[in-house]
Amino acid sequence: MSKLRYALYTGCTARESTPELLKSTLAVAKKLDIELVLLDEASCCGASHLQDFDDFLSLVLNARNICYAEKHGLDMVTICNTCQLNTSMTKHRLDSDPELKAKVNEKLEEVGLVYKGTSNVRHFLYALIEDYGLDNLRDKVVKPLSELNIAPFYGCHNIRPSELHHHFNRTKENPYNPTSLEDLIDALEGNSVDYWHKNKCCGFHVDLQAPKTSNVLTGNALADAYDNNADVMVTPCPLCHLNLDVKQKAAVKSIGRELKLPVLHLPQLIGLALGCTPEELGLKHHVTEVPA
Q1: Which string of DSSP letters, residue by residue, matches 160-175?
Q2: 3-state secondary structure (DSSP) of residue 35
Q3: Which of 108, 212, 228, 255 sits at a 20 to 30 Å CA gap from 134?
Q4: CA–CA separation, 249 vs 286, rounded Å?
Q5: φ, ψ for residue 26, nearest 5 deg
Q6: Which CATH number applies to 5-123: 3.10.290.30, 1.20.1600.10, 1.20.1050.140, 1.20.1640.10?
Q7: Per-residue pLDDT for the chain (292 aa), expressed as one digit of tens each?
Q8: Measured between alpha carbons, how far is 120 from 122 in angstroms, rounded to an integer?
């Protein structure tokens, strides 16, 4: 297999609130001999909030980020569900509407950029599955996760809307019954936990408007995984991770429960199976303790 190279769009959260996500992503890429070119010039995707305030500005912002991947001649990979949604949604709209693309490029020309539409945009999860391959990943496992019951938590934005997801990925995920995380857990020789809340909302995007509702959504997901004998939860989204890990105590209290469930970022789980150290994976950054 030829060496895989991608432009890595980290988004904001992996560089600030969850630095362990970026750290573990780079550690896993090194183990798998995948080259990730950091897009240091890129900015926030708008986090699905700017989109409500100024749709055109959001398009320009995300097109600008994609332009930096295009300058490297590389496809873009993301490590945040919301970044994936906003970036891929922008690309889909611009590639489908020449007039809109031209208007966006008028603004981009002010900073010396032109959006061409030559770089694909996928979450790192699907790049691993589709390009690296689960069989190849299985061959790299040095510490099988066979003693762990792992609850996959998909979140909303990486598997919805289906039209957008299917356009950019060869893996045609069913948002009502997604399986990509289970397939990856199987490749790492772990045991997947099936539970009803695995593809539900974590509540992050209503934190400011309805904090009680947000806590209940988070608490219900954690309790459901815990009640189905999960030892750990894994998510491909740092925003979900913030709610599930940082807010865990308040979230489970809001539904009248007391429990502790470690929550891992996707590359942290992969890294454990590949033999990365806790330091390489940034496990000390978690609020809910992750046993060594």
Answers
A1: -SHHHHHHH-SS---T
A2: strand
A3: 228
A4: 13
A5: -65, -35
A6: 1.20.1050.140
A7: 789 999 999 999 999 999 999 999 999 999 999 999 999 999 999 987 788 889 999 999 999 999 999 999 999 999 999 999 999 999 999 999 999 999 999 999 999 999 999 999 999 999 999 999 999 999 999 999 999 999 999 999 989 999 998 999 999 999 999 999 999 999 999 999 999 999 999 999 898 889 999 999 999 999 999 999 999 999 999 999 999 999 999 999 999 999 999 999 999 999 999 999 999 999 999 999 998 6
A8: 7
Residue given tokens 């600008």 in the structure block: 64
121-123 and 191-192 beta bridge pairing: unpaired
Fold of 134-285: Rossmann fold (3.40.50)
- Residue ranges per domain, the chain? 5-123, 134-285
Where do we find the tokens 């391959």?
133
